[in-house]
Structure formats: C-alpha cells, structure tokens
Amino acid sequence: MSRKYKFNNNDQMYFVSFAVINWIDLFIRTEYKDVIVKSLSYCIEKKDLKLYAWCIMTSHVHLIIGSAGNPLENIMRDLKRHTSETLHLAIKNNTKESRREWMLSMMENAGIANSNNLRFQFWQQHNQPIVLDTPKITHQKLDYLHNNPVAAGFIEKPEDWLYSSAKDYYTSTKGLLDIILIDPLVVTV
C-alpha cells in the first residue's frame, strides 16, 4: 500500500472514508447507523479519538479525525473490527431484515476471497486516510463530507441529515456526537 494512504503523523487531522463491501446500502436502517454512532462515541470516550466531522451515508462513512494519543491506525482498526462484528451479528439476528440472507452471503463470499479474514468481510479493506495539512484541503473535505447527502439527493440542506455533524456546523443545535469544531484557520490537532 502506498504511504500516501497511511496515518503518518498522529498530530494531524485526517479525512477517512470506509465502505461496506460491494457498496451494500446497509445504513438505510436506523439500528445499523446507531451502531456506528455508539462506536464512535465509545472511541471518543475511551480510545483518544478526536472527532471533527462525520457523516454516515447508506453504504459508507466519512470522518475527519485526529487523536489525543492513541495511534490513529489502532483506533481505526478497533473501530472497524468492532463495528463489523456488531453489525454482522445485528444483521444475522434481525428477522425483519428482508435482505439478510443476501447480505450475509455477500459478506461470507468476500471473506472467503480475502485471506485477511476468517469467516466474513464487512468493510472494504482500505480507509484511504488523507492528511488535512492546509486550510484549503481541510475545508474542501469538510464541505464534501457535509454535502454528500445533498449531492445524493436525500436532503436539500446539509444540516437536515441527522447522521452527520452538519447540524453542529450550520446551526446552534448539537448533533448526535461530541465533536470538536474545526477552526477555519487551524488544521493541526
């Protein structure tokens, strides 16, 4: 893997995205999105995650993150491992999930095809962390992240997307997670 896509400096903010295998639209259901929210909250409280911005789309997650000490690669590894196991089990146990067998089959087939997995694969392998080392790139990624649901045609204004930090940035209302607002002139953590 190229060094371009690694967490090289724990003192920087990074934009990361990670997607469900085969871009499965898993996060159309609230209970699955809530697993991500709870996991991010846990990582903020217990794993030194600094969360600056976030957005859960139907098949993927965007984050702007930093760390208060714990290496970012460890935080991301633990976050993805925990959410993959928790979401896999949630799908398996959700008798009302009409796509259950299809999704589980896709995950098991992806796991078989990838020697890094034992039983199944939930997330695509990469995070593609991009260091945010200038105000221009920081705000470009922040705008992209918050406008993703608008561009997808789900809403008209970013702050209307519940599973995002846009409410924190565009209104005086607090969103679902404790975030650190990005100062327009500062890009280091």
How does this structure look, described?
GO terms for molecular function: sequence-specific DNA binding; transposase activity. This protein is 40% helix and 14% strand. Strand 2 and strand 3 (60-67) form a beta hairpin. With 189 residues, it is an alpha+beta fold. The longest helix is centred in the middle third of the chain and has 22 residues, at 72-93. It has a four-stranded antiparallel sheet, with helices on both faces. The chain has a single domain, classed as Transposase IS200-like (Alpha-Beta Plaits), CATH 3.30.70. The model has no long low-confidence stretch (mean pLDDT 91). Helix 1 (30-46) runs antiparallel to helix 2 (72-93).
Layout of helices and strands, plus pairs?
Layout: E1 13-19, H1 30-46, E2 49-56, E3 60-67, H2 72-93, H3 100-113, E4 130-132, H4 135-151, H5 166-170
Antiparallel strand pairs: 1-3, 1-4, 2-3
GO biological process, one term: DNA transposition
Domain Transposase IS200-like: 9-148
Protein name: Transposase
Notable traits:
globular, alpha+beta, Alpha-Beta Plaits, 189 residues, single chain
What does this entry show, briefly?
With 189 residues, the chain is α+β, with helices and mostly antiparallel strands.
Q: Mind telling me the CATH superfamily name?
A: Transposase IS200-like
CATH topology: Alpha-Beta Plaits
Rg (CA only): 16 Å
Low-confidence stretches: none
Structural class: alpha+beta
What can be said about the biggest beta sheet?
4 strands, antiparallel
Share in β-strands: 5-15%
The top level CATH class name: Alpha Beta
Widest beta sheet: strand line-up: 2-3-1-4
Estimate the helix proportion, in percent. Answer: 25-40%
Q: In DSSP terms, counting alpha (H) and pi (I) runs of 4 or more, how many helices? A: 5
Tally of individual domains: 1
Which descriptor suits the 3D outline? globular
* N-C termini distance: 25 Å
The ordered string of helix (H) and strand (E) elements is EHEEHHEHH
Annotated CATH architecture: 2-Layer Sandwich
Domain Transposase IS200-like: 9-148
Organism: Panacibacter microcysteis
GO molecular function, one term: sequence-specific DNA binding
Protein name: Transposase
